[in-house]
Specification:
Blueprint: H1 9-22, H2 43-48, E1 55-60, E2 77-79, E3 84-89, H3 91-100, E4 103-106, H4 108-114, H5 135-148, E5 153-160, H6 162-165, E6 172-178, E7 189-194, H7 201-216, H8 222-230, E8 232-236, H9 241-247, H10 305-317, E9 337-343, E10 347-350, H11 362-376, E11 379-382, H12 393-401, E12 404-410, H13 418-439, E13 451-457, E14 461-463, E15 467-475, E16 491-498, E17 509-513, E18 522-530, E19 537-547, E20 556-563, E21 600-602, E22 611-612, E23 625-628, E24 633-634, E25 638-640, E26 649-652, E27 668-673, E28 677-678, E29 686-695, E30 704-711, E31 714-722, E32 733-738, E33 746-755, E34 762-772
Parallel strand pairs: 7-8, 7-9, 9-12, 10-11, 14-20
Antiparallel strand pairs: 1-3, 1-4, 2-3, 5-6, 6-8, 10-12, 13-15, 15-18, 16-17, 16-19, 17-18, 19-20, 21-34, 22-27, 23-26, 24-25, 26-34, 27-33, 28-33, 29-32, 29-34, 30-31, 30-33
């Protein structure tokens, strides 16, 4: 949970808006912008226009067809139901709108935002928006993922920004690739890009959080685990880093920063990268030929280095699955999903954007779009329904390669309040992104099938031979029908796979309707899992359903742990940089005693087989134990520390995240258990370890850190520290406990940490564990 703070985003934004009303701008953040068509002025004339003439207006219309006539102005928002659009304008633009029949109303608050003074460059965060990471902070977060989890994440240079290409500093364009490198392919791919329009703050942060969620939940959440084992996810977090640096100064910057367009110092310079892609570039009035326009398409198709890099990378990742015409569909079993994440307007869009003609796979795109919109609550529609666009990312990905391509328009503002992002945009769209990852294998087939929900086992951990009840809900109705109604059908079947999914040759095992017959669009289903042939360790069950159209929906998964005659153990999760991530079935290891009389020693620099959530009963939703390289976290003092020695330790959520509360323990208990250690029958046996337990002042005695000993005779509490309603900083301390009472037994050491109260900032770490005779 986010720690308590007097500096809430809403409060900071309110202060900013008050300041804007009483302080004169130091300078305006926009130079003049030209429009296209018969009213175009020369770029020199545009550049000389008095900057104080910029206004954001609501332009009301009676005829929706008028919107297409001003597509070159790139309206911020179009509300067809209420009959208005929101757009930034010059005096000439307003004259043009009035002449076309629009009724104008100046939006004073948005105009103040447009013309606010810029913030100084070089800040480590965006003033007033602490939830959004800068370009440098985004890159650092991605690098941390690859350093901590190199078997799951790689950080790849795919090209240069314009400024870097011409020697003015700039940035690499980098893609964060997520997949379990230990599991061979080929694997279906999800490619998602964000922040191609620089001023759209929410987009890059959403994608970065998505990456952190998947990696930090590998081996903990069954869906995150199988997605990384069997799929690839490619994330271009900052598609326009030069422009983003301008936007981080509070400028409503949209384009790249190419100084060859408009003028070298104008804030209207650059090309709109989302009008610069090669498919149907400049074809249909959905972009501008005027260099100062927000929708300037560039000198030629893919003329910008950012565009060229993205085009080359996407072509290298996806097969060409359709001709480059406007009528030939991709095959039904075509693979891959392409997402371009934008803000704002609360929309899910799919091709085409340059014609009212539906795309050849229009029905399938509509089905998947309505499914995405079910999760985020946005309106699903063909792109051209907003206003005409050409030379766009999604037209390229679908038009040239046949990849199912979509745009998400997040939220309700370019500079979205952090409270809205954290409470609404992030959770709603994270669910949509997970669905995209699940559907990437067959995006034109899978979304037509039902969702599998509420997958559960009667018990998550059993001895081999115990019958286990598997239950789930199969639901065919989960579509957003704001813009037309998606057909739905009765459920006709459900099945599960044990450890091996169908694409690897796994055998289906049938499930039954709980009420005895499949006769509804929402069905509870059940099966009895025979565990007699299962090896000790963790197994994964994949569950899916089928509807009367014959469509199978996406899989949802759950872990089942089989215990053996000795205390169960398994390979640590998430995987360490030096360890290969385990296969779903893991046999229990036993610790190998080190030389020199030490029974067991672990500095956590190598993977010795600790097991997260060994009994399958943990309920913490974030901050689960992991062996990793921890990032320091500070909130009123240190709350998460780097390792006591070396680089690695056991830590409750190793990442720092966007704020101190991003990855701490939340909503329950997290547990980690050592491999089995056999103690001698005599001697002075001692356990020692280093630890810290830290929390903010809103903690309580329900929060705790504990060390337990697990043996065949049960569980024994060795050490406990409870939380309190005071701020407790992290500091490495040492504990030493006698184990003489357990001489001659085979034991395991278990660490537990919990945020069990109303929710607080809670962190814990363990390092340098030693068992000596």
């Amino acid at each position: 949970m986010r720690p308590p703070s007097l500096r809430s985003p809403r409060f900071l934004i309110l202060l900013l808006l008050i300041a804007l009303t009483i302080l004169p701008p130091l300078f305006h953040t926009r130079a003049a912008q030209a429009d296209q068509g018969p009213t175009d002025r020369s770029e020199t004339e545009v550049e000389k226009e008095n900057e104080s003439e910029w206004r954001v207006v609501r332009a009301y219309f009676d005829d929706p067809a008028l919107v297409a006539t001003v597509a070159d102005l790139a309206p911020w928002e179009v509300n067809y139901e209420a009959g208005y659009l929101v757009v930034e304008t010059t005096a000439a633009d307003r004259s043009r709108l009035t002449a076309l029949g629009f009724r104008l109303e100046v939006d004073e608050a948005l105009t103040a935002l447009l013309n606010q003074p810029s913030w100084p460059p070089g800040l480590e965060s965006i003033p007033g928006y602490p939830c959004y990471r800068t370009v440098e902070e985004t890159f650092a977060a991605a690098q941390t993922l690859t350093t901590s989890y190199p078997n799951l994440a790689s950080w790849n240079d795919i090209g240069d920004s314009w400024e870097k290409q011409v020697g003015l500093g700039g940035y690499d364009l980098r893609v964060l690739k997520l997949t379990n490198a230990a599991v061979s392919g080929p694997k279906p791919k999800l490619f998602a890009m964000s922040a191609v329009h620089a001023r759209e703050y929410t987009t890059a942060e959403l994608m970065t959080r998505f990456a952190e969620y998947l990696v930090s939940n590998y081996g903990i959440d069954a869906d995150a685990t199988w997605l990384l084992d069997h799929h690839e996810i490619h994330l271009l977090l900052q598609a326009n880093p030069d422009g983003r640096k301008k936007a981080e100064q509070g400028i409503l910057w949209r384009k790249n920063t190419n100084q060859n367009y408009c003028s070298a110092t104008s804030n209207s310079r650059g090309a709109d990268l989302n009008r610069n892609f090669p498919f149907q570039w400049g074809c249909c009035g959905g972009s501008s030929g005027n260099q100062c326009s927000d929708t300037y398409r560039g000198a030629a198709a893919a003329s910008e280095p950012e565009t060229a890099a993205i085009v080359a990378y996407v072509r290298s990742q996806f097969p060409d699955q359709r001709p480059d015409d406007l009528t030939s569909p991709a095959p039904a079993d075509a693979t891959g999903i392409f997402l371009d994440i934008h803000s704002y307007s609360e929309l899910v869009l799919w091709p085409w954007g340059f014609t009212n003609q539906p795309a050849p796979n229009g029905n399938q795109l509509q089905t998947l779009g309505r499914k995405f919109a079910y999760f985020n609550g946005y309106e699903p529609q063909q792109s051209v329904s907003l206003y005409p666009t050409d030379g766009t990312t999604t037209s390229f990905a679908y038009g040239e390669l046949g990849v199912a391509a979509f745009t998400f328009e997040l939220g309700t503002a370019f500079f979205q309040a952090c409270s809205t992002f954290e409470n609404t945009i992030l959770p709603d769209n994270l669910a949509a992104l997970i669905y995209a990852a699940k559907s990437a294998r067959t995006p034109y087939l899978t979304p037509a099938g039902p969702d599998t929900l509420n997958v559960a086992l009667s018990t998550n951990s059993v001895p081999a031979g115990t019958a286990v009840a598997l239950t789930a809900t199969i639901n065919d109705t989960r579509y957003n029908n704001q813009n037309g109604t998606e057909p739905t059908q009765l459920i006709t079947a459900a099945e599960y796979y044990l450890d091996t999914p169908p694409w690897n040759g796994g055998a289906p095992l049938p499930m039954s309707a709980s009420d005895g017959s499949f006769n509804s669009k929402i069905e509870a289903v059940t099966a009895t899992v025979n565990s007699s042939a299962l090896a000790p360790g963790r197994h994964i069950l994949f569950v899916r359903g089928q509807d009367a159209s014959g469509s199978w929906g996406p899989f949802s998964a759950i872990f089942l742990t089989i215990t053996g005659g000795t205390p169960p153990t398994a390979t640590a999760v998430p995987p360490s940089p030096t360890a290969v991530p385990p296969s779903p079935t893991v046999a229990p290891p036993t610790a190998t005693p080190p030389s020199g009389g030490t029974l067991f020693q672990d500095t956590f620099e190598s993977d010795q087989g600790w097991w997260v959530n060994p009994d399958g009963t943990d309920d913490a939703t974030t901050g689960q134990w992991a062996r990793a390289i921890p990032e320091a976290v500070n909130y009123n003092g240190p709350k998460q520390l780097t390792a006591a020695s070396g680089s690695f330790d056991l830590v409750t959520g190793p990442l720092a995240g966007a704020n101190a509360g991003s990855h701490d323990i939340d909503n329950g208990v997290t547990t980690v258990r050592s491999p089995a250690v056999t103690l001698p029958s005599s001697g002075n046996i001692t356990l020692s370890f280093s630890y810290y337990f830290a929390h903010a002042s809103n903690a309580s005695s329900a929060d705790f850190f504990r060390a337990r000993l697990i043996s065949n005779s049960g569980s024994t509490l060795l050490f406990e520290q409870l939380g309190a309603g005071t701020d407790r900083d992290a500091s490495w301390s040492s504990v030493s406990v006698s184990l003489n009472a357990f001489a001659g037994q085979t034991i395991q050491i278990q660490f537990e940490a919990a945020d069990n109260g109303s929710g607080s900032l809670v962190e814990a770490g363990v390092d340098d564990l030693l068992v000596t005779p």
